[in-house]
Design goal:
Helices cover 38% and strands 5% of the residues. It is mainly α. It has a two-stranded antiparallel ribbon. A two-stranded antiparallel ribbon has the order 3-4. α9 runs antiparallel to α10. The protein is elongated, with a radius of gyration of 48 Å.
């Protein structure tokens, strides 16, 4: 403990044992001592200074004076003003929190059957169990005036018994891009509502992202490749994603499959229309429009290119996706003009 601290401690001890500052003897003693000091009468001597009955040395008196315990009262240092408030971040930078409509909060208790009353229970069950076939998307076409799954069926022979079952969709049920995207939207909407019912925001976001990416991908493919090839890609791609989704993985929808693209799409890139249509046929049969691909019963890949026989289509593979084969002799290395077998 240093001298200054010892002095202050001793002074406080004496003052506590002496009369209180409010007593007349204490006040008069301190008042007379301070008056003599201020008037110069009580100049400190070498032996010490008497202050309120306490003899202080010159050094002790100077310490008390410097500390403000005697003499002029301490000057109260003003409290510095508080710092200015920090300006809030601009509202345009922050994303506001999601605000739920209290009136519609009861919608969370609705089941998928209530949310999609026009979709059969069995179809919804197939979707949430990831067993739904891609060619059955026409069952989700809510804009149709009739229910395709009830109106169209097929006769199946099983164990010598004839049973009637709802038929599987075919490529003819999807003649245009719109005919595929509309039911595909309902499919992902059911998946999204199913994911939201689990309370997982991450799962819901994955389903939404999968739908947005895949629809954009199919739309791009429809402008680059023939529609029948896009449908073939869609069917195989969809089946692979269903297997992944059964294990909780939705990321495959957001990555194009290069191997499937090379098999299904690359050989059927859109090009120029076939030069000329044979006589007796409408001009639409020789074009590459999607409507002509679904107007015949025979698949395009099994149809004969009528421009190969007269020699006007010599590109391999055929730009229209048809067979280069002479009908009379069945050869695939020459057309009518180069045939030596037929008369």
């Amino acid at each position: 403990m240093d001298d200054e601290t010892s002095l202050v401690t001793a002074l406080l001890s004496v003052s506590l044992s002496s009369p209180t500052p409010s007593s007349p003897s204490s006040l008069s003693s301190l008042s007379s001592s301070m008056s003599r000091l201020n008037s110069g009468e009580g100049v400190p001597s070498s032996s010490g200074i008497g202050l309120g009955g306490i003899i202080l040395t010159n050094e002790q008196f100077e310490i008390l004076l410097n500390r403000g315990l005697i003499g002029s009262p301490r000057v109260k240092v003003p409290t510095p003003p508080p710092p200015p408030p920090v300006a809030p971040v601009a509202a345009s930078v922050q994303i506001p929190p999601f605000i739920s409509n209290a009136a519609s909060s009861s919608a969370t208790s609705e089941s998928l059957l209530d949310l999609f009353p026009n979709v059969p229970r069995a179809t919804i069950l197939e979707i949430v169990q990831f067993m739904f076939h891609p060619l059955n998307l026409n069952k989700l076409d809510l804009s149709a005036h009739k229910k395709v799954h009830d109106a169209q069926s097929s006769i199946v022979l099983e164990n010598d018994n004839i049973t009637v079952k709802p038929r599987l969709g075919t490529a003819k049920d999807y003649p245009t891009l719109q005919s595929l995207l509309e039911p595909l939207f309902v499919y992902f909407n059911i998946l999204g509502q199913y994911a939201a019912s689990s309370g997982s925001a991450l799962a819901t976001r994955e389903v939404i992202s999968a739908f947005a990416y895949y629809c954009a991908q199919i739309t791009t493919f429809s402008r680059t490749y023939h529609w029948h090839a896009v449908l073939a890609y869609h069917q195989r791609f969809f089946l692979r994603r269903s297997k992944e989704m059964s294990h909780g993985d939705f990321s495959g929808w957001m990555v194009s499959n290069a191997a499937l693209q090379a098999i299904c799409l690359t050989p059927h890139a859109r090009g120029t229309a076939v030069a000329a249509a044979p006589k007796g046929r409408s001009s639409t049969s020789g074009t590459l429009g999607s409507s002509s691909l679904f107007s015949t019963k025979t698949p395009v890949a099994q149809q004969t290119c009528f421009n190969f026989n007269p020699g006007t289509c010599k590109t391999l593979p055929c730009p229209a996706g048809r067979l280069h084969k002479y009908q009379s002799c069945g050869a695939d290395d020459h057309g009518k003009t180069d045939c030596t077998r037929s008369g």
